[in-house]
């Protein structure tokens, strides 16, 4: 079930979505072109990243790329409003729409997200994906933001899970709790997003004052809330200082060290790094090809991180509280067919 083709980095498309980026499709295509030329072959998107599946599909068609040339990971995120009544036909329609947008007969990996456990039956939705896999419409099934207990139940249901994508960074280490054990026991590959915490783990914020509202986008708001859970802006500054010290040793930037920290975790197979433009392309190439942290450097980072609070709960537990401060910033209904 493994994704054998994976390198250390997957290029994420969320920052190219409408509403998150001002980039036109032409500019987004140039970003894809630059990363593809630099040797990146795995791209991440979602049915709810407005315009991104279409843009990647346009890129694939323009270059005549086949299944061996590029791998696209997308997501299946049914709207909150239909969870209680979701049918196989609705699931199939959304998967078919992704196939059409991307111009692919078979989706390489479909990563499944479910907003609210008590609503509807996510196991039946996964049964639908398994049926669509057997029909040849998708090759592999992945998960997004499920807890360890739920992942174990999904595996016991007989769903062939290849990977799970979760938020993970030096700030948010929830994935190293029970989920890490479950993924390793079931041969599920852990894919990390948020390794640079929406840009907060970068040189840009070292020595700066905390950003004030209104923030540039929901991503920044989301990760600032995680910093608050960890202990606040001073805690982030302490982490940035140790990351900068290690970055000096490697002649690189803080963000690269932050992602390298995630990649050094035993259960982590790859990091998803955002590509809003080509500003960080050289750093991403260096991270992919050269940068690795020593055990001593990891320990140095963890010694500082351990001075502050762990993010409470299991993976995505805070975000699942739709009335809480983490849940209130989510957009739950972006996938109408």
3D structure, described in words:
The protein starts with 8 loop residues before the first strand and ends in a 32-residue tail after the last helix. The chain has a single domain (9-305), classed as NADP-dependent oxidoreductase domain (TIM Barrel, Alpha-Beta Barrel). The protein is globular, with a radius of gyration of 19 Å. It contains 11 helices and 8 strands. An 8-stranded parallel barrel has the order 1-2-3-4-5-6-7-8, surrounded by 6 helices. α8 crosses α9. Helices cover 39% and strands 13% of the residues.
Write the layout of secondary structure elements.
Layout: E1 9-12, H1 25-37, E2 42-44, H2 52-63, E3 71-76, H3 88-102, E4 107-112, H4 122-134, E5 138-144, H5 148-156, E6 161-167, H6 178-185, E7 189-193, H7 218-230, H8 233-250, H9 254-263, E8 268-274, H10 281-289, H11 295-305
Parallel strand pairs: 1-2, 1-8, 2-3, 3-4, 4-5, 5-6, 6-7, 7-8
Helix pairs in contact: 1-2, 2-3, 5-6, 8-9, 8-11, 9-10
Widest sheet: strand order?
1-2-3-4-5-6-7-8
* Overall morphology: globular
Domain count, please report it. Answer: 1
The overall average pLDDT, rounded, is 94
CATH superfamily: NADP-dependent oxidoreductase domain
Q: Uncertain segments of ≥5 residues (pLDDT<50)?
A: none
Give the distance, in angstroms, between the N- and C-terminal Cα atoms: 30 Å
CATH class bucket: Alpha Beta
**What's the number of extended β-strand segments?**
8
Helix content: 25-40%
Strand fraction equals 5-15%
The chain-level structural class is: alpha/beta
- Examine the coordinates and then state which fold CATH places here, giving the name of the CATH topology: TIM Barrel
SSE ordering: EHEHEHEHEHEHEHHHEHH
Radius of gyration: 19 Å
Sheet with most strands = 8 strands, parallel, barrel
Total helices: the number is 11
């Amino acid at each position: 079930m493994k994704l054998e083709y994976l390198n250390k980095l997957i290029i994420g498309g969320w920052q190219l979505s409408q509403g998150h980026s001002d980039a036109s499709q032409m500019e987004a295509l140039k970003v894809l072109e630059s990363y593809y030329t630099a040797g990146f072959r795995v791209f991440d998107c979602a049915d709810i990243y407005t315009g991104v599946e279409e843009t990647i599909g346009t890129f694939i068609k323009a270059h005549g790329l086949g299944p061996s040339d590029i791998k696209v990971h997308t997501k299946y995120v049914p709207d909150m409003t239909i969870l209680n009544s979701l049918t196989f036909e609705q699931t199939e329609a959304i998967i078919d729409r992704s196939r059409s947008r991307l111009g692919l007969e078979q989706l390489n990996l479909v990563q499944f997200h479910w907003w609210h456990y008590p609503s509807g039956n996510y196991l039946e939705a996964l049964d639908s994906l398994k049926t669509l896999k057997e029909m040849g419409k998708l090759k592999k099934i992945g998960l997004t933001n499920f807890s360890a207990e739920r992942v174990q139940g999904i595996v016991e249901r007989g769903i062939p899970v290849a990977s799970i994508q979760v938020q993970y960074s030096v700030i948010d280490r929830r994935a190293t709790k029970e989920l890490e054990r479950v993924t390793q026991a079931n041969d599920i590959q852990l894919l990390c997003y948020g390794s640079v915490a929406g840009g907060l783990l970068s040189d840009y914020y070292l020595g700066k004052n905390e950003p004030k509202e209104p923030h540039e986008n929901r991503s920044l708001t989301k990760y600032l809330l995680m910093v608050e859970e960890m202990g606040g802006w001073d805690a982030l500054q302490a982490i940035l200082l140790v990351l900068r010290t290690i970055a000096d040793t490697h002649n690189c930037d803080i963000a690269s060290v932050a992602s390298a920290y995630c990649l050094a975790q035993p259960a982590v197979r790859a990091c998803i790094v955002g590509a809003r433009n080509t500003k960080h392309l050289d750093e991403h190439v260096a991270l992919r090809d050269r940068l690795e942290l020593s055990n001593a450097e990891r320990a140095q980072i963890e010694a500082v991180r351990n001075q502050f609070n762990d993010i409470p709960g299991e993976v995505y537990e805070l975000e699942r509280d739709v009335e809480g401060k983490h849940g209130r910033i989510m957009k739950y209904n972006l996938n109408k067919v």
